[in-house]
Amino acid sequence: MPTEKNIPEQINQSGWDSDAKFLGWQETKSGEAVALYNITASGHPSCGSTVSEKSLQQMNLQIPETPPPRSPAKKL
Question: Which of 9, 21, 30, 49 places its Cα 20 to 30 Å from the Cα of 76?
Answer without folding.
Answer: 30
